[in-house]
Amino acid sequence: MVTDDPAQAAFNSDIIIFVLPAFLHLKYLKLLFPYIEEGCILIGMPGQNGFEFDVRYALRRKLNSCIVINFESLPWVCGNREFGKSVEIMSIKTQLVGALQGNPSNARIPKFIVELQKLLGNLPKLIISGHLLGMTLVSPNAYSHPPIIYGRWKNWDGQPLDYKPLFYHGIDEYTAELLGKLSEEILTISRQIGQEYPQIDLSEVIFVYDWDMNHYSEYIADKTNIHTVFLTNGAYNGIVHPMLQMPNGTYLPNFNHRYLTEDIPFGLVVIRGIAAIAGVKTPYIDLVLSWCQNTDGVTKQAEMLAM
Q1: CA neighbor of 259 nearest in space, from 295, 290, 233
Q2: Is 145 a catalytic residue?
Q3: Closest Cα partner for 170 from 91, 243, 231, 213?
Q4: What is the reported pLDDT for 306?
Q5: Which residue out of 145, 215, 227, 241 is catalytically annotated?
Q6: Whether residue 284 has pLDDT greater than 90
Q7: Do 71 and 165 sit in the same domain of this protein?
Q8: CATH code of the domain covering residue 18
Q9: Which of 71, 83, 201, 252 is the most exposed place for a label (fewest CB within 10 A)?
């Protein structure tokens, strides 16, 4: 059934999976709220950073009778083939880690992870481990997309290009090092929280190199370091920077894209806020955030030129 009626969509639902942009999570949760029944399992796939905050705000006391799961990423590397009709799955992750909040014994269906695995097939292997805060910190889009955008365009001279640059396969050594620096800052946040609250399991917060190896090992030709892992990961074949095409066929960067419009406010900013609460300094995260805040005017100018 395809419907825009939240009452029909949620009716007698055992599991509700949110596979949509993070800015819509709260809106959908509020619409579904009156119809969510006790024991329902709410899954963000991915929920992005802080999915559980939106769930808590929307469901209020009803949250006590529900189960919340947030997965770190999508099961696949994929993209639109024809908007609203078909997508292209370019690769499937080896595993997908999620964390759970709530009492599984209250779930409307037992062994719900087994049922969810059946929906996806053999891969990725679903793993439930650790605290939801771990998923907020380890969510890879937040600490990979913005720094890759920054690394490619920080010294851009404003002139259009006659091609679309490769995204993951186009990173240089500086950007690879920057990815490592951001990942180290996130690990520092995790360690600081773990020291103050040892009961919180943040073991799934791992270094960026290890994350890629866990999820894409079979696709990676050169596993020497972060740089080679990104350059030789076959799962990333053909992925380019978001670009706007000009009337003369040239291209300008499109900064009004989810790599920034979603992965900054619903990603890296959330991590930065947690760092502030934990008292951890994040100079490299701050560097990327500061630059990204100044890209909006460039995109508006490019959109006007493309009209």
Answers
A1: 295
A2: yes
A3: 231
A4: 54
A5: 145
A6: yes
A7: no
A8: 3.40.50.720
A9: 83
Segment 138-166 mean pLDDT: 96
Q: What is the pTM of this model?
A: 0.93
Give the type of residue at 100. Answer: L
Region at 266 (left for phi over 0; alpha for psi -120 to 50; beta for the rest): alpha
Residue where a domain stops, chosen among 77, 104, 129: 129
Q: How far lies 288's CA from each of 55, 61, 143, 160, 201, in Å?
A: 28, 38, 10, 23, 28
| Separation CA 250–CA 306 (nearest Å) | 10
Q: How many domains does the chain have?
A: 2
Q: Residue 199, Cβ neighbours under 10 Å: how many? A: 6
Closest by Cα among 147, 190, 135 to 285: 147
Contact between 230 and 171 (Cβ < 8 Å): yes
Neighbours of 187 (CB within 10 A): 17
Q: Are residues 213 and 159 in the same domain?
A: yes
- Give the distance between the most distant pair of CA atoms in the chain: 61
Which residues span the domain enclosing 34?
A: 6-129
Same domain, 202 and 125: no
